[in-house]
Write the structure tokens for this entry.
Amino acid sequence: MLKRMGATEDAARRSLGAARGPEDIAERAAQIEALPAEDVLRWAYEEFGERLCLSCSWQKQSSVLVHMVSELGLDVDIVELDTHLFFKETYETRERLVERYGLTLIVPDVLTIAEQHKREGPNLWETNPDRCCHIRKVEPLLEALAPYDAWVSGIRREQSPSRAAARKVERSDRYGVWKVQPLADWTEKDVWRYIMGNEIPYNPLHDAGYRSIGCMPCTRPTRPDEEERAGRWAGSDKLECGIHVEAKAEGDR
Ligand code: SF4
């Protein structure tokens, strides 16, 4: 079931039309901000067409966006950033979503774990998690986004202070794309309401206390009184894997 659109949102959507260039999109950011998620996706598809992709890591936001794109009938490429270190429940969730929605995934190359051990030393996630994330997430994403002008992801402002300023559309100079974040203003409750209301397959680890799910070595369950992403790189000051960080890092192409 789609969210109902209010009069203000309806007016904002009708007035958008096709952009004349990058400056025009930037100028429209405030209007896009007023749109519900479905209309942000419709706008992005009209604007970027086949040069729009959606990245999935098979957490609850991926379930929402895969379903929403399917409901809207948008033929959007799905990019999977598989680090080879996901939980088995995450891979099973991927299979259920692929089967239900008939997805074809685009999977960028990544070093095997054995190659990484040989090149960088064993268990890089323990000795240098920033480097590990760069190799296993940022570099594959840079490669995957090369053919696209816009990238849809499921980040939400509420997830952590590091995401509090996320906009529904913003420019990423690092990746050379527009970032489209239709769920930026959704709460965790909004996500669950949508998943349950539409009976969408979701990662069962969420039911076991994992409110945010990444790689096995770097994810633990989260207590209700903690921030949603507190179980990621717990015990360190690392907050992000780097794919949603704009600053370029050594090794960026
Ligand atoms: Fe490596 Fe952990 Fe980052 Fe996964 S989350 S890429 S295991 S450091």
